[in-house]
């Protein structure tokens, strides 16, 4: 009599929808497409095209449960949009003293870069916190991450009353962190625990502050 050992796949405690993160990346490509040609490196459609091309294997690898490959493709996606954001901001800083853009174009460009900043860093927080979305789903409770969400600090009886037992962050939670970082230039209700998260938030705040300061300086110059 032979005993065959059956390997069991890890238990997944819930399934997080991936479409919000993909929508955010497509929005980044569309925002880059709306920028003036002077603020784009290469064709203005290049970022959106790269996002579309890389999204196909990202969806496929997730469906066939190749999570390591899916994570690497996700890093490549986030890296591309991050480089595009930094390049456009550098071109904006270079072009500002030369007064090449009209006030309306400058306002639109600054708003597009500000929104792009939020979406790009929300994507990074979502991909990196707790080992990524798949590893977060393997845990019964989200207790090991770079961010201390308010739901994680509740006592057991309060978690049961507020339906926070077994709570895990989704993309919208990281989007909220990124939005607060770009508006208040600091986290609000969520504490930052990891050094990499603190570094990324400093970079995001610096980009947001640079965009706001450049816009204000141009407005004062116009007045």
Structural description of this entry:
The chain is mostly helical and 223 residues long. It has one domain (19-222). Helices cover 63% and strands 2% of the residues. It has helices spanning 19-33, 46-63, 67-95, 103-128, 133-137, 156-161, 171-183, 195-222, and strands at 147-148, 191-192. Strands 1-2 form a two-stranded antiparallel ribbon. Mean pLDDT is 83; it is low at 1-7.
What is the secondary structure topology, with strand pairs?
Elements (H helix, E strand, L loop, with lengths): L18 H15 L12 H18 L3 H29 L7 H26 L4 H5 L9 E2 L7 H6 L9 H13 L7 E2 L2 H28 L1
Antiparallel strand pairs: 1-2
Helix pairs in contact: 1-2, 1-3, 1-4, 2-3, 3-4, 4-7, 4-8, 7-8
Largest sheet: 2 strands, antiparallel
What radius of gyration results from the CA coordinates? 20 Å
The overall pLDDT average reads 83
| DSSP strand content | under 5%
Q: What order do the strands of the largest sheet run in, or round the barrel if closed?
A: 1-2
Structural class: mainly alpha
**DSSP strand count:** 2
The helix/strand order is: HHHHHEHHEH
Distance between the termini: 89 Å
* Total number of helices: 8
Total separate domains: 1
Low-pLDDT stretches are: 1-7
- Shape category: flat
Helical fraction: 55-70%
